[in-house]
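The instructor's notes for this session suggest beginning with a concrete chain rather than abstract definitions. Hand out the sequence below and ask the class to guess, before any prediction is shown, which regions might be ordered.
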Amino acid sequence: MPRYFCRLRLAVASLMAALATSGSSDTAQTSTASQSSGSPTTVVIDAGHGGHDRGGIPGQTIAEKVMTLDVAQRLRNVLSASGYRVVMTRDSDVFVPLPTRVSIANSYRNAIFVCIHFNATQRAGAGGIETYFYSRGSLPLASAIHNYVVGGAPSSNRGVRRRGYYVLRRTNIPAVLVECGFLTNPTEAAYAQTASYRQKLAEEIAAGVRARNSVASDSFIDQTKVARSERHKSKRSHKKSARKKKSSSKPAGSEARSGSIHRES
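After discussion, reveal the predicted structure:
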């Protein structure tokens, strides 16, 4: 009898070991992402613009909304393959209001938010990559993504910048907005229209996500005061126009997109 129980115990031990090995293989993908970059492992990807919101500036040839969605979908594929849980604020050509995008991001705990955009301006010579953040807790993520994207793109480095865009200011999780170059710059626009370059952008952003806890935070340009100054100037301008009782043929809200790009603030 003792030998029988001894064999039984050995058989049970072997079975438990086999089950443990099987279970670990099922969760290997998730645990890899957790161990390599730590918590969080959920990435909310926001493709800028969409639907009736084309993005860019009036007369721009390339629709920003198309480029942002393509890069966002490629980024989703790269991150998913690395074991991350990925949530898209939009996965097709639809318009999603900014508050809805923020609500989606804030509905996930232990997550990060990556907003994809391309830049535009009236000056065709303007170019380069810039990455925005708002909260101090978002700076490591912004620095890591920016370092990788700039390192892998043939565009100039416009730096990491702090500014209170709506999707950055209202999110409760680390959040960044990446400007992947100027679609109004002929050279950068040509790059952006190639699938290989958009794939490269996605891979570099993903590398930044994975390395967000190991890359030293960059110095940054604080543009929050500039944004407040611009709003005050705008208010003064509107008051002055009202006093002079000048009529305007511009549609309501047209001033909101003056200057450089979308500026979702």
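Then share the key points. The domain at 34-225 is CATH 3.40.630.40 (Aminopeptidase). The chain has a mean pLDDT of 80.
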